[in-house]
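Intended use. Records such as the protein-glutamate methylesterase entry shown here are meant for training and evaluating sequence-to-structure methods. They are not intended to support clinical decisions.
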Amino acid sequence: MQEKSRELRVLIADKSSYVRLVLQDIVDSEQDMQATGVAADADELLGLLGADEADLVILDCDLPGNENLLVLKRIFSEVPKPVLLLITQEQLTLDLLKQAVELGVYGIVLKPGRGRYANYRSIAAEFLRKVRAVSETELYNVQRRLEYLQQEMVLLAERPVKRKSSPVDTIIVIGASTGGTQAVESIVSRLSPELQAAVLVVLHLPEKFTRSYAKRLQRLTPLKVVEGRAGSLLRTGKVIVAPGGKNMVVEPFMGDPANLKVGFTDEPTPLFDQPSLDLLLRSVAQCAVRNMVGVVLTGMGKDGTLGASYMREQGGFMVAQDEATSVIFGMARSAIQSGYINKVLPLQEIPQFLNRYVAGQQQVSATDSDYEIERTGV
């Protein structure tokens, strides 16, 4: 009984029976929450709220009866409850945001599309995180809620107008350990200034070292180089260095699987494999990006091998540094021997390959991959 009392009680209100079913299943799959009711319109929702001690309401902004936010006004005046609002990007304006937070909205989630069977499971992680955020005390303050949601709007506004700089369709992940700082510098300094890809860098470095390393990389390239921060958006021409001691991943921004941001995970990994290349590669493989390239460089251990398997399963392309140019031929050797590597290259050829691959000037085939592995004698 004590376990049940700690569960978040959630009411779901959406006009679509499909969406109600999917969201209910997502909620009920979690141990710390349960969907205690679903509603298809305003009257049904208000009736449920009168009889249910819900902790929060998941409310579709397009719910029948919510014209001019009438449902929010009725909830606020009749049975006040925190509300997580499902909304389209077109509906999201500062005026609506100000009204919504005054009426109990503590968070927003962008819908994953307008189709009848939009993929709501693609926003499950973001959705669940914001459901759990109802317990954060700072969100009980109206001003703090408004500031919090305005920050999300600012991130959305970072989307450049030019199409070619819109949310990335190509991600390059580069990972290394021993000898990796020099190897990464060699690659990043030779990447094309016009590179139409986001680049994520993982080095097994201690905390506080990666910030100065990112600044050092910035002096070597016209591409923008930053240390990863929670919420930082992935963009073409941007190099993001994973902070030392933290396992960086990518995740959908406000539920949009085509628009990605930096996140972090507490999932355990070997102490000396932090930041984890495996976890970053897996998160990239699980996102909706069109082109994915992983690069495993010099270093001890096997970090990157498991991640390479996820990348290959989802159509990604994997490159490994050869033994001759590796300081320690451990990570790359493990990945190559696993069979998940498409191409083995000496360090000096990797940036040229990435430039050609991203530019679409080189056709990569299975035959080519087999030839490269055979040529290196691995």
